[in-house]
């Protein structure tokens, strides 16, 4: 955790290239921690508190980003932490499904830096 004046963001993404991209795109706006999956995310929230979550939906065959969101929201003090779904799902109705599942915002792949920062900032502002 480097710059405490920036909102802290936990980004969970299983693809190593996308992990690097997220870190590169977001590090100027957020104090970002990028982890590869559910276990890394649960580990990270035990050590740090985060202002928001950016969760890839397709994390593994066993658990999805939606599963992870529910695990995180059940952790002490995280019931209201804003969360943004990051996904390749971009069909009509997908956005509504993710919002109904508990996410505050939704970003579909491919994305731009503006797409990400706007969604995260909107989620933070809404809380």
Helix/strand layout:
Elements: E1 8-12, H1 16-26, E2 31-35, H2 38-47, E3 52-56, H3 65-73, E4 83-87, H4 94-100, E5 105-108, H5 113-126
Helix pairs in contact: 2-3
Based on helices, strands and strand pairing, what is the structural class? alpha/beta
Order of helices and strands: EHEHEHEHEH
Number of helices: 5
- How far apart are the first and last residues' alpha carbons, in Å? 22 Å
Radius of gyration from CA coordinates: 13 Å
**Helix fraction bin:** 40-55%
Oligomer: single chain
Report strand %.
15-25%
Strand order of the largest sheet: 2-1-3-4-5
Morphology call: globular
Mean pLDDT: 93
Question: How many runs of DSSP E, i.e. beta strands?
Answer: 5
**Contiguous runs where pLDDT drops below 50 for at least 5 residues:** none
Q: Would you kindly provide a brief summary of this structure?
A:
The protein contains five helices and five strands. It has 127 residues and is an alpha/beta fold.
